[in-house]
Give the backbone structure.
Amino acid sequence: MSALSIENGSKLPWNKGKLVGQKRPLQLKEIWEIRFKLESKARVRDLALFNLAIDSKLRACDLMQLRIADLAQGNRIQSRARIIQRKTGRPVQFEISEQTRRSLESWIALRNLKPLDYVFPSRVVKSDHLSRRQYLRIVHRWVADIGLDTALYGTHTLRRTKASIIYRKTKNIRAVQLLLGHSSLESTVRYLGIDEDDALTLAEQIEV
């Protein structure tokens, strides 16, 4: 804390000197680079976590609290899952792609996880599952491994990535709203960072 701040009896803003705001989604090239790194290093847990984070588009608090029973029936991971979001209390569904199912099944077999076990147990004795802080450190390691600036990426990077790709390809904001579990289109617009330039670009593509 500076002398000036001490004299004035005030504290420096928590975000002074830090980059704040929305974290960037990953691009397709970056997704495949991270997957290649994780596969080549046989990081089974991280690959399952990365793939599920991309597919599910869940907030960190929901992703970390998933149990095997949320995703599987018997020994098989299902192609779709449904949970109640902690933040909103609203249900949300998500798809689980074939490659994500394979990586999850490998992880479950490696750790011999049971239906009531958390999908991503913590290695810290006092915690049942990975914390959001641990998850953030893992995400930062992934992006650093492919040469990206960790200050620009966070756990919401994984939540935003597939939603952003879907929007860019389809421009279907309602579909993205449902996939993210947002209560309003306005929330989705803000979350994706859709602005006036996007709207004008869409308008320019339509002839009447």
Q: What stands out?
A: Residues 155-170 form the longest helix (16 residues).
